[in-house]
Write a structure and sequence with these properties.
Distance between the termini: 39 Å
Number of strands: 0
Number of helices: 14
Length: 327
């Protein structure tokens, strides 16, 4: 374990020892810094009670969650490819999943047990987007209402895992525009408004329960925006955070060599995808790719201090799928 892992594990052990019911994590009596009852308090209580606080078992679970999140990306890619009528949808899905799963932005979440929330966020978000695309463009009969009804459920699970899921309704509209320009029908509009209602309820509960006083997570406008924007470009180029830290903190040549070794192959892949994509994608779709990435990363541009590569876990999903389509 490392860092916050010990804090969460000790707190979970004390809560389990006190005999507190499991639902108490969802309705805390004292304000936590983050209200993530599914991926943090509840998850660590499960690690303590079921896994016995085993480091080895916790890291296996983190790896399994990463694999599930990667499969979620592949499923979303498959549904998106089918909806867009791209050839070889299965091949695109497999390639997108493989590329996404291998990105360096997952290094820290896979090795840091406390970052399991990131894989949960990705899993629930991709399941939601896959259901959204399927309901709009493929499903018929009884399956379509079930898919639409599942959207608020997946969103609730994502919100209980990490705060950035609040942007998911906006991402749903971007994905809808990427596939086809048409208005939402009545069922889709009701499902989307239900998602908005879930976000609104979550915001009220979060304001009631949390007391975040950490200056690292303050949203400010200043030089931090440029720094975070540069970091975002680095994450898209597959540059590890440690490589950037080395280049800035003193080991400059080694850090720059590491940055070049990771960024140049990814830059070549993006360049090839952009060149071939001129004929394969429309201008509207390219705009949607940019909008998706920027919207998904929007809160992190304003962070006063913290900047980690796994913040881009959702932002890279649609670009990676397009990369798989165009390369």
């Amino acid at each position: 374990f490392w860092g916050d892992d010990y804090v969460f594990l000790h707190a979970a052990h004390a809560t389990n020892a006190s005999g507190a019911p499991w639902w108490s994590d969802f309705w805390p009596s004292s304000p936590p810094r983050f209200w993530r009852p599914l991926s943090q308090e509840g998850y660590w209580r499960w690690v303590d009670a079921v896994l016995g606080g085993s480091t080895h078992a916790a890291h296996i679970v983190s790896l399994v969650l990463h694999v599930l999140a990667t499969l979620g990306v592949a499923l979303f890619a498959f549904r998106l490819a089918r909806a867009c009528r791209w050839p070889h949808a299965g091949r695109i899905a497999a390639f997108a999943g493989a590329v996404y799963g291998a990105l360096t932005l997952h290094l820290l979440p896979v090795h840091w047990a406390a970052a399991a929330n990131n894989a949960m966020l990705t899993l629930f978000t991709t399941l939601l987007l896959a259901a959204w695309v399927s309901a709009r463009h493929e499903a018929a009969g009884r399956l379509r209402p079930i898919l639409l009804a599942s959207l608020p459920v997946w969103l609730a699970l994502a919100l209980l895992s990490k705060e950035s899921a609040a942007l998911t309704p906006a991402l749903m509209l971007v994905v809808a525009a990427f596939v086809a320009v048409r208005r939402l029908d009545r069922g889709e509009l009701v499902a989307w408004l239900a998602c908005i209602a879930v976000v609104a309820l979550w915001l009220l509960l979060r304001a009631r329960f949390t007391a975040n006083t950490d200056a690292s997570y303050e949203l400010t406008l200043g030089s931090n925006v440029l720094r975070n924007a540069a970091s975002f470009v680095a994450w898209l180029l597959n540059v590890p955070r440690e490589a950037m830290r080395m280049a800035v903190a003193g080991e400059r040549m080694q850090g720059l060599a590491w940055i070049a070794a990771t960024a140049l192959p990814m830059l070549a892949a993006w360049t090839i995808a952009g060149w071939r994509g001129r004929r394969l994608l429309t201008r509207r779709q390219w705009l949607c790719i940019g909008a998706f990435a920027v919207l998904a990363y929007a809160p992190y541009f304003l962070f006063a201090r913290n900047s980690y590569e796994y913040y881009a876990a959702i932002a890279v999903i649609l670009p990676v799928i397009v990369l798989a389509r165009c390369v």
